[in-house]
What we know:
Layout: H1 3-28, H2 34-57, H3 64-84, H4 90-97, H5 100-112, H6 118-135, H7 146-168, H8 174-193, H9 203-227, H10 233-240, H11 242-255, H12 261-279
Helix pairs in contact: 1-4, 1-9, 1-10, 1-11, 2-3, 2-8, 2-9, 3-7, 3-8, 4-7, 4-11, 5-6, 5-7, 6-12, 8-9, 10-12
Amino acid sequence: MSKETKSIIIVSIGTAIWGGTFPLVKFLLNYVSADMIVAYRFLFSAIFALPLFVIGLKKNKKSLLKLLLLSIILYAAYLTQTEGMKFTTSSKSGFITGLYVVFTPIVAVIMIKEKPPFKLILSLIISLIGLALLSGITFNNFSLNKGDLLIVLCALLWAFQIVLTNIYAKNTDANFITAAQMVIVFLLSLPLSERSLFMPHPLIVWLGLAFLGIFAGYLAILAETYSLKYIDPDRAAIIFTLEPVFAGLASFVFLGETLTRKGIVGAVFILVSMWIAISAKPQTE
């Protein structure tokens, strides 16, 4: 089996895991605050990542400043997403988070200063229409609720994280990039959580937090970083579009959530916008 095929399989599994975490996070918010969920999940991630971080630190000291920036973005993305889920449904948050597939090529175009193709502009317009339908925005009410707005910000942050990861992975070991982010993000979360980090919780809560940190955190991000070296970005983006689908299915199965008719149309619009964005190719000036 080729490295590309293995990478496609790995990313597909990781995408399914990420989609399944939306109802899990929604459940955990009944017991733990958003900032504590982020701290806990990266505590478990950091425990597994620490050996690789220590081993790779000497060889990659020059990359620490860049990885600090990447970690700040990652921390902000998880915090805004988790906080946002307090005010919106799990299924809606999954589809809104999926907008990073649209935002990512736009961020890439901005960073490499190329002319955005028409398809990219079209995908952004369609995604905004989908977001409006999904969030219940009408002509009389143009405001997003707090949760939806925070998750839109999360999607934008994810776009920057993916673009920067793709850039850094070309010159820095993927294991170290992932390990450094896990450790640094945990350290960033301490100021908000150190006093209550080890409060007692039911066993199911601890198991959920451990799953978020180990499988949906460290291992999934390591898989993403590794796979971006071997998968064509277009193929990877197509796989990533399945995340909100998995989120919607998991939310229906575990939480009994359903979308309204307008919400379903909005979700379809967002998925269509993702596919259009994937097919868009930047044009040089």
